[in-house]
């Protein structure tokens, strides 16, 4: 009996040593898109943000001219809605985009996650609440762990229409994000020059980081396009990790 137990244990140990561990998929960038869903973003404005990304990922040029900038020609992307300190929602989990087709699939997943249109009630949004960008960063950071991919760069692109009025300190969480390995936090504020300055001073951080502002929501689509393309172009040049 003891010999049998030993033989079983030895076999299990041998299998553990010889069974290959599935390696994480290498990508040029792990990119988290953080989208404001706070109270000030009504249903119409929310759809402008959502459809801004849907349109971008549905455009073949996004992959052919920008996502392919990296040596691996692969980018992993997730989209997260944020608002109050305890209100964060992963709308689309990490997805490897390695073709124009997979980019379109991601865009359609963004739309399918919250399919309502601007004519529906504001309550159809994922949630409503205060504006806590620091807490949004805190929610996003653990999502860079155990993603199934390993990126040369880890980047956050966050859009929003207001300064912090609740939650964790934004500058503190910005600094914590860099300490935890985030390479850059790029921002897209929607509003006044004062808001742009606040985002630049309290959120923007890291190698090659930048802020692209939109004066109002009708202009947000163009700002998101500029910011996303600039983020992707910078992946091959700005401080990529070995």
Structure, explained:
The protein is of the alpha/beta class and 242 residues long. It has one domain: Rossmann fold (3-Layer(aba) Sandwich), CATH 3.40.50. The protein is 39% helix and 21% strand. The chain has a 6-stranded mixed beta sheet, with helices on both faces. Helix 6 (170-179) links the parallel strand 4 and strand 5 (184-189). The longest helix has 17 residues, at 2-18.
Strand content range: 15-25%
Tally of helical segments: 8
Query: Helical proportion?
Result: 25-40%
N- and C-termini, Cα separation = 52 Å
List the helices and strands and how they pair.
Elements: H1 2-18, E1 25-36, H2 43-57, H3 60-66, E2 75-82, E3 88-97, H4 100-113, H5 133-140, E4 149-160, H6 170-179, E5 184-189, H7 193-202, E6 205-206, H8 220-233
Parallel strand pairs: 1-2, 1-4, 4-5
Antiparallel strand pairs: 2-3, 5-6
Helix pairs in contact: 2-4, 2-8, 3-4, 5-6
How would you sum up this structure in a few lines?
The protein has a single domain, classed as Rossmann fold (3-Layer(aba) Sandwich), CATH 3.40.50.410.
Key features of this structure:
242 residues; alpha/beta; 6-stranded mixed beta sheet; 39% helix; disordered N terminus
